[in-house]
Amino acid sequence: MNAAIETAKEKVTELGKKMLTAGLVAGTWGNISALVREAGVVVITPSGMDYTRLQAADMVVLDLNGRVIDGHRRPSSEAPLHLAIYRAREDVAGIVHTHSEVASAFAVVRQPIQPVVEDAAMLVGGAVEVALYALPGTDELAQNVVAALGQRYAVLMANHGLVGVGRSVEEAFTVCQVVEKCARIYAWSKTIGQPVVIPEQDVLLLGRAYRNAYGQPSEQRVPFRGSVGEMNFE
Question: Which end is more exposed in the chain, N or C (fewer Cβ atoms within 10 Å of the end residue's Cβ)?
Fold first, then answer.
């Protein structure tokens, strides 16, 4: 295995532990993967293993057709979902699937989580839509999720949970954290009044600003110029 794959194994292992301690999953549920683009493989968590005991050696390496390249464990049952997203989205290099409580409540009532706070608008790029229901681990579910995700960065699986994607597995994890926070704020705000959703054109601007100008220059994909459109960005 090359160094990039070994690094991905370590990252996925670490994020699995963080996902559990952050309360985004309970028990052994949820799953995480990272695409190692230069090697054309995906590192994914094993099925049904305690996150507190996971080691990098437990990770499973798949090609984009789902064939096991390396690893002695059975891969996550949601591997078809992860692979379908990677095949559909060239910009995605990390996927995190959680069962966080408030986001999952929206999945149960099958209502989208609207972009009512700016960080969620930046990271998701619009409402977190609900994919049509299908049984877990099936190709049907994978197809439904890809369709509902579109070009955004998070999607709900009906009666199931949340999927966050990103340009890295770390970013996908952050997406899941921010969506859960947004879901909580959105649910609370509904109890005290009528939530005001950020206008679509502003959501697009915020998302573009985040991906093009947020953070330090060495971390960005395009040169920093101090503003995006008419908005200064810090």
Answer: C
Tokens 């996150």, residue located: 51
Mind listing the pLDDT tens digit for each residue in 164-217?
Answer: 999 999 999 999 999 999 999 999 999 999 999 999 999 999 999 888 877 666
CATH code where residue 92 lies: 3.40.225.10
Residues of 60-72 as b/e, b for ≥16 C-beta within 10 angstroms?
A: bbbeeeeeeeebe
| Active-site pick, 10, 78, 180, 230 | 78
DSSP 87: H
Task: Look at residue 200 and tell me if it is in a domain.
Answer: no
**230 is a catalytic site residue:** no
How far apart CA 23 and CA 98 sit, in angstroms, is: 9
Q: Is residue 215 part of a domain?
A: no
Which of 19, 183, 26, 182 lies closest to 94, judged by CA? Answer: 19
Strands 227-228 and 161-166: unpaired
Contact 164, 173 (CB under 8 A): yes
Give the bridge partners for 130, in sequence order: 156
Residue 137 belongs to domain spanning: 3-192
Residue 59 within a domain: yes
Look at the chain and report how many structural domains it folds into: 1
Identify which of 180, 121, 173 has the alpha carbon closest to the alpha carbon of residue 156: 180
